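Project standup — Tuesday

K.O.: blocked on the structure for the chain from last sprint. Re-posting the sequence here as requested.
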Amino acid sequence: MRPAKQILQLALGALLLGVLGFPAFARVESEVSTPEKRKLSVERAVRLSKQTKADPLPAEVLLPYAPPGFELTDAEEAAAAAAAARLAAAVNPGAPSGPAAPSDHDLLESIAEKIKPSGTFNLGGQPILAIGKRFVKTGSHFIVTYKGSDYDLELTGIDGSNFTLRYKSEEITRSIQPGKSP
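H.V.: unblocked you, prediction finished:
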């Protein structure tokens, strides 16, 4: 029985050597292409990587991503529009002009109506006004966006249930609780 077992082991060993051993000695082709093939690719890459200067655009082309005055802030843009309106009125005095710009006081009243504080509290003996998620101390400046323009307001006072806002030289006092006037 022993010789049959040895024959079986030899046959199995030869089979494994044939399956696993010979591919190890087989010739493997390189994954790197030949120099002639690489030369074509390198020449194409060099040709594509050369930077060329683009032809200048004609002066009359309007650029949609950077129109004239695009870099101006909202305040500068409003000032430029007002200056253009004044220039147009000076050139053609009989033409009807657009609606008059609101005064600072009218503007402050309109903005103050939109500000709805949720209350006040004291921190270190100083009253603080809660407006949405912002907390504003007396004397602090904060930016409010109204009709697409940013306005710098100053909280000048908190007195009981009222607060006072300043825009430029105009001041207005409003009630902290909605529906109650000062």
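K.O.: great, moving the ticket to review. Residues 104-175 form one domain. Residues 2-25 form the longest helix (24 residues).
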